[in-house]
Amino acid sequence: MTQELHIVGGGMAGSEAAWQAANMGVQVVLHEMRPKVKTFAHQTGNLGEMVCSNSFRSDDSEQNAVGLLHWEMRAADGLIIDTAHRHRLPAGGALAVDREPFAETVTARLKAHANIRISYEEITDLPADGQWIIATGPLTSQGLGAAIQARTGSDALAFFDAIAPIVYYDSIDMSKAWMQSRYDKGETEEEQRAYLNCPMDKETYEAFIDALLAADKTEFHEGETAGYFDGCLPIEVMAERGRETLRHGPMKPVGLTNPHQPDVKAHAVVQLRRDNALGTLFNIVGFQTKMKYGAQKEVLRMIPGLENAQFARLGGIHRNTFLNSPTLLDAQMRLKSQPNIRFAGQITGVEGYVESAAMGLLAGRLAAAEILGRDLPPLPQDSAHGALVHHITGGAEAKTFQPMNVNFGLFRPLDGVRGGRRGRKDRYRGYTDRAKEVWTDWLAAQRVDAAAAE
Questions:
Q1: Does 255 appear as a known binding residue?
Q2: Do 5-161+319-453 and 166-313 share a fold?
Q3: Required co-factor (predicted)?
Q4: Residue 10, marked binder
Q5: Sign of dihedral through CA atoms 163, 167, 168, 169?
Q6: Which of 143-152, 227-236, 246-255 bottoms out in mean pLDDT, i.e. has the lowest?
Q7: What is the 3-state secondary structure of the chain?
Q8: Is 48 flagged in the annotation as binding?
Q9: How far apart are CA 62 and CA 71, in angstroms?
Q10: Counting beta carbons within 10 angstroms of the beta carbon of residue 65, is it exposed (0 to 12), middle (13 to 18) or buried (19 or more)?
Q11: Nearest-CA neighbor of 346 among 287, 408, 392?
């Protein structure tokens, strides 16, 4: 075996991919443009630099999906999660780290690995030959971004997220909400009931607009700019254009009949649309927002039916670079039009340090196995890694695909487990127990295969 694996980007995903592939015996070249080419967000040339929060979020592997990802990465000898634990700071149940020593250690460990060579240069093309992983994250350089756009299509790469909040279905009060498409459009019953509707009377609508206009908003970071398109305006920007704007936009009440009160005409209606194939997650249609997270929860819970809403993801608009992965990537995270190229990390449409590292872990192992001529066992969908990669490569709705954190709404339901809020603790424990079992089996099968190949 002489073929090298080239990885572009030394963030969480690229660093983890390099570590995993190198540990499997593959020669890796890790390409990082910093410090020669700088970004407005990075401060150093270190690999694995944390540019935003210093938290890897919950470390609870029994009741939290991101904590389960931590557990799975530790079981797979993950560089990022192990280094995070080495530089852990007190943070309750969260895994927060001392960011500078963390990045320094990630850099030192990668440099010390016999199978890894680091090249400090900017890559601006998608090479036609060799095995490559693109893990350049939300700050992909202009040159490489243009090359990706040229290969995938001009509409395939987004430079600003227009993210609407996503709600867990089992936290919605269906005694107030109902399922119906406008004017009952659709040839099948499923299509005619594709939207979940939350009605507002005039008093509730006026109070909602007041709260929306008064809510705390997040400002763009220095160096960011955003030109809003009319098709994806933040709801607070629409409200600022006039109090009736939302009623004639995403909250228009036409073509809908409330079965709970069929004789009452709603003044406005908030619609939610299923966000995944399982029907466990619903996004609030047209509700992309720059409200701060605390304000979002307060304002959105004013919507009838969402008083007790639990959010898989809150909304926002910020600079990002991500693919429409359900359309462009195969189950092996390869670009369908150029399968020698894999993508990993935030550019695939995941959000957060942990999720980015997890996608790097998978991409590194998948690419190394292909180079070594090994067939990895099928990735278990019931693991946290499997649920997340299944979502971005096919489980999500391609037309409305937006970046996603890992959450239990991505997991296949368990049989015989109580639904709703009261059954949540047992349900989450069931998810994590099942995931740990299938992930352990998946890793064990690879160790057996590797031993047989020696």
A1: no
A2: no
A3: FAD
A4: yes
A5: negative
A6: 227-236
A7: CCCCEEEECCCHHHHHHHHHHHHCCCCEEEECCCCCCCCCCCCCCCCCCCCCCCEEEECCCCCCHHHHHHHHHHHCCCHHHHHHHHCEECCCCEEEECHHHHHHHHHHHHHHCCCEEEECCCCCCCCCCCEEEECCHHHCCHHHHHHHHHHHCCCCEEEECCECCEEEHHHCCCCCCEECCHHHCCCCHHHHCCEEEEEECHHHHHHHHHHHHHCCECCCCCCCCCCCCHHHCCHHHHHHCCCCCHHHCCCCCCCCCCCCCCCCCCCEEEEEEECECCCCEEEECCCCCCECHHHHHHHHCCCCCCCCCCEEECCECCEEEEECHHHHECCCCEECCEEEEEECHHHHCECCHHHHHHHHHHHHHHHHHHHHCCCCCCCCCCCHHHHHHHHHHHHECHHHCCCECCCHHHCCCCCCCCCCCCCHHHHHHHHHHHHHHHHHHHHHHHHHHHHHHC
A8: no
A9: 9
A10: buried
A11: 392
- Is 154's pLDDT higher than 70? no
- Kindly report the CA angle at 342 between 337 and 344, in degrees rounded to 5? 135
Domain ranges in the chain? 5-161+319-453, 166-313
> 5-161+319-453 falls under which CATH superfamily?
FAD/NAD(P)-binding domain (3.50.50.60)
Tell me, what's the pLDDT at 109?
98
pLDDT, one tens digit per residue, over 268-279 is: 999 998 888 788
pTM of the model: 0.79
Q: Which range (41-50, 149-158, 175-184, 415-424) has the least confidence? A: 149-158
pLDDT in tens, 37-58: 666 556 687 999 987 678 899 9
Q: How many CB atoms lie within 10 A of CB 187?
A: 7
Amino acid at 43: Q
The pLDDT tens digits for 279-297 are: 899 989 889 898 999 999 9
Which residue type sits at 329? L
Contact between residue 146 and residue 122 where contact means Cβ atoms under 8 Å apart: no
Query: Residue 14, annotated ligand binder?
Result: yes
For residue 58, count CB atoms less than 10 angstroms from its CB and return exposed for 0-12, middle for 13-18, buried for 19 or more. Answer: buried
Q: What is the pLDDT of residues 301-353, one digit of tens each?
A: 999 999 999 999 888 776 667 899 999 999 999 999 999 999 999 999 998 89
Place of tokens 């890790």: 30
Residue whose entry in the numeric block shows the structure tokens 């350049």? 136
Q: For domain 166-313, which architecture applies? A: Beta Barrel (2.40)
